[in-house]
Amino acid sequence: MSSATEPGVETRIAWLPLLTALAIVLTVTAYPRILADGSGGADHVAAGFLFWAMSAGFVRGVGFVPRQRPTRLLLSGPACLAGVLLAACRLL
């Protein structure tokens, strides 16, 4: 049976993605209208980008690094930034 991490691999908390994920959670909880489009309806694409960023931020932030390359790329620190930027471009 294999362990959760490879031997010799140190996992560390990545504070920037973790704090970004927490900011997304708090902002969307306190002010859900931020995910509304110009007509007041929900912007599902922007929400998807923002929640992808939140997921990537939490996964990378707590120090977990997936083994498979595609998953590792989708749940990385740069993916968190990309999700936030794509959501911002969509909402502005």
Total strand count, please? 0
The domain tally reads 1
SS-derived structural category: mainly alpha
The pLDDT mean sits at 91
Report the end-to-end length measured between terminal Cα atoms: 49 Å
Shape, principal axes of CA atoms: elongated
Q: How can the largest sheet be summarized?
A: none
Give the oligomer, counting copies of the same chain as homo and different chains as hetero: single chain
Helix content: 55-70%
How many DSSP H or I helices?
A: 4
Q: Can you tell me about this structure?
A:
Helices cover 60% and strands 0% of the residues. It is mainly α and 92 residues long. It has one domain. Helix 1 packs antiparallel against helix 2 (44-61) and helix 2 (44-61) runs antiparallel to helix 4 (77-91). It is elongated. The mean pLDDT is 91.
Summarize the structure.
With 92 residues, the chain is mainly alpha-helical.
Record the SSE blueprint.
Blueprint: H1 15-30, H2 44-61, H3 69-74, H4 77-91
What characteristics describe this protein?
single chain, 92 residues, 60% helix, elongated
